[in-house]
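Ticket #4471: structure output looks truncated?

Reporter: J.K.
Steps to reproduce: submitted the chain below (266 residues) through the standard prediction queue, then opened the result file.
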Amino acid sequence: MKLFFCGDVVGRSGRDVVLEQLPRFKKEQAIDFIVVNADNAAGGFGVTAALCKDFFEAGADVVTGGDHIWDQKEIIPYISSEKRLLRPQNFPERTPGTGHGIYTTVTGKKVMVLHLLGQVFHKEHAECPFATADKILSSVKLGGGVAAIIVDIHAEATSEKMAMGQYLDGRVSMVVGSHTHVPTMDARVLPKKTGYQTDAGMCGDYNSVIGFKPEAPLERFLSKMTKIRLEPGSGPGTLCGLLVETNDNTGLATRCEAVQLPGPLK
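Returned output as attached by the reporter:
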């Protein structure tokens, strides 16, 4: 199978490049399953039902969020009914929505997606993502009940994301980091055959500060005035993501490649 993950979509530039590039890329690469992280898609803060529908129409099978999942209040009733939109699984059980699911591809194969939030430097005080992963994965068998397992670990610390990759190596098809908006140069197949990248980067304007116009972040650094409103960058966007190909029998990775379409990184 071919699995593709789109890094955090930031603002209109990110949305535009994903909606433009994803359908073509999906067709050219014959991708079987796509996950889009949309944690910053709505003006840089969260995602809406309408934007989720746009991503689904463009080829996404699942949309994940992160620490900004609740920024748009309208998302609460939507996430309660739309199982293809995931919030982090390690939120409390009473939280609306879910953080994992098993989905069926057009060819009838089953794919699990698990969305986790890191603990280091995050104010949400979520439950342990490692223990949460153990709990969810105990109910499935890679290469048996499911053909592939994709894990989106939305975390600040590279060490926490790398630890998750090592912890789940050989148990899932793909562990990919999101949240920090800068693509790392370490896309690879781990020793036990899990595809891995510490952070896929963002889909958005890279002539920016992590997707936002430089003026407000610079002022925050220079004056410590933290209440200045952040605005997403409006320049041409780059789609950044991770492409993983798996063995049809085991569900483990045989190929792992970082993707940048088009823009300054390309």
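Triage note (M.O.): checked the attachment and the full token line is present. Residues 11-29 form the longest helix (19 residues).
Status: closed, working as intended.
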